[in-house]
């Protein structure tokens, strides 16, 4: 597999970072904690850029800022874990997004079967092997192959929207196949 390089910058102006940030605040994103072992100690960070990439092969991705305190640990790790946070875990997400604190001291966690730290009480856990890392703008894009999945507790996911944490409320099921209201005198054709 080859990596396609980014096209060289065009002569036209790009949107200003503050305008892009303002627009992206309106996008609700799931919140996860990505963890690695940094030697013999755990390291991790809150991520809202996590996404599924492929089911066959099983691939996921996330981005980490070039200024993140966990960048060196993530870059040097061959494997990582993802804890999908539930709506009651905003405190965990905040802690893992804060610099200069021991993120694991007040967070219940345990090593998974692969030795990765996973956050207790999460909705699910993924153990992943790093497939590739691609520097992209002011971030590092990490692509991982999912080695194992463990379901956790049931519940609503934690999302980040408009600069704060939230829990989505499920909508009623959408029924397909319902007749469409037609204007009077309009009949379906066979």
TrEMBL record:
Residues 24-167 form the Flavin reductase like domain. InterPro entries: Flavin_Rdtase-like_dom, NADH-dep_flavin_reductase, Split_barrel_FMN-bd. SUPFAM superfamilies: FMN-binding split barrel (SSF50475). Residues 158-190 are annotated as: Disordered. The keyword Flavoprotein does not apply. Keywords: Oxidoreductase. Pfam families: Flavin_Reduct (PF01613). This is Flavin reductase family protein. It comes from Motilibacter deserti.
């Amino acid at each position: 597999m080859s990596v396609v390089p980014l096209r060289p910058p065009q002569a036209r102006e790009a949107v200003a970072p503050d305008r892009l940030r303002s627009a992206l605040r309106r996008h609700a994103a799931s919140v996860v904690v990505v963890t690695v072992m940094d030697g013999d100690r755990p390291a991790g960070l809150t991520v809202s850029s996590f996404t599924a990439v492929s089911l066959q092969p099983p691939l996921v991705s996330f981005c980490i800022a070039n200024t993140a305190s966990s960048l060196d640990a993530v870059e040097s790790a061959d494997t990582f874990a993802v804890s999908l946070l539930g709506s009651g875990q905003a405190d965990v997400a905040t802690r893992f997004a804060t610099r200069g604190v021991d993120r694991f001291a007040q967070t219940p966690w345990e090593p998974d079967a692969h030795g990765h730290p996973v956050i207790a009480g999460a909705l699910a856990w993924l153990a992943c092997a790093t497939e590739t890392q691609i520097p992209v703008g002011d971030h590092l894009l990490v692509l991982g192959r999912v080695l194992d999945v463990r379901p956790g507790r049931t519940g609503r996911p934690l999302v980040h929207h408009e600069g704060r944490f939230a829990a989505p409320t499920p909508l009623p099921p959408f029924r397909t196949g319902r007749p469409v209201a037609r204007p009077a005198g309009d009949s379906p054709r066979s």
